[in-house]
Amino acid sequence: MNQNTLSSQQIAFLLLIFLLGSALIFIPETYAGRDAWLATILASLSGWYILYAIISLQNKFPGISIVKLSELSLGKIAGTILNLLLFWAIFIVLLTFVFDLVVFLQITYSALSSVFLVSIIILAAAYCLYKGVNTIGRLGELFIWITLFFTILGFLLAMPLMNSSNLTPVLANWKSLIAGTYYGADWPATELIIFAFFLPMVNDLKEKQKQIYWWYFMGVVLLVLKNAQILSILGMYKASILRFPLFEVFRFITIADFQRVELFFFILWFIIGFMVILIYYQGLLLGLKEMLILKDYKVLILPVGICIVVFNIYMFPSDIEYLATGIRYIPFFSLPVHILYPTIILIATKLRQKTVAQAINSLGTVQK
Amino acid sequence: MLYAIAMFTIVFIMMEGRSLIRNREWKELVITAGLLLIAISYGLDYTMEWNQIPNPTILFNKLKPVADAFDAYFLLQN
Description:
Chain A is mostly helical. Chain A is built from 14 helices and no strands. Chain A is globular, with a radius of gyration of 20 Å. Classes of the chains: A mainly alpha, B mainly alpha.
């Protein structure tokens, strides 16, 4: 099989793993209080829009990277500036994913330093990236059923602990609902922009794009259930102050004489957390390769990897710094970039459709 | 941190660096060397506690007024 092709089904699986992995053990919408599950539903609309934008761009110009489309539709300078803004946002979001996974791992491996853990994670990801894009697709196929099984099992095990009174009254404060929706839209919904870099490699996008939307819908349903469950078990206050609320929920579960059930799920959370990093790392490399017009992204794997290691430690030396900057300020940069980037390109390609099509034909890169 | 940088750099030279030079792919070499240089600079700055290079978080801290206005309007507590 070609190392650089993917199927719509693989993208759909990766999408679900990404949705669950980037926000499985956290609730980004905690600002919405007990309406966090409602905020997830509203925020998912922005993710749907991102998917619509990148898929329709890819259907209109098959095989052409969004990075190239940006330059062709907006001009070299404006297009490059827009691309750089997106890459910066992606890099920062990637740092937050790595930081979250490291903090999570330090619950168990508290004696290991952050530098060591980040280096190990990045080296493991680099190994996968050297194997080609298709490897990530196949990893997605491999992990999807394990992920679904353990996610649903976890939900069922924690069900007896649920207390629905923690979810009422619904819609008591619409302002906090909007705030929660904003954070939920930033993380994880619009972060799906990363899949724009994978779509040119999908060989059956036009015929099977519905699969992607369906798996996205399924991911949103699981996120809503997860948020509602956490809130109903921990209550609004605890869910908002705990670093890993889902992890805490699983600590309450006991099966007969078995305790510490959460450790069974630790491997699941690590796998999907790692997959999220892998997807973002790969997307960033594919985008950089297009912008810098390189033959292969593989030369960038280790140099970008060491930048991730260094900037992770440099920018977020502690959890406090991370919570102050990563959680509080970054969404006000990343969300506008994630939404505006495909929107501007979508409008520009619509307005300059003929020019862009001619430019692509002259480049001789259209893949029919 | 310095051990990590050294390890990544050595692995890169062994896996990519030599073939880039052999195949005269200068563009790739310049880009990757630039990225390594940035990483080494920040790594040294952090380890030696020089604090001479601007921290990228400064860019995000400039968004504080926006975040504060957002919190104030939506009555959020931080």
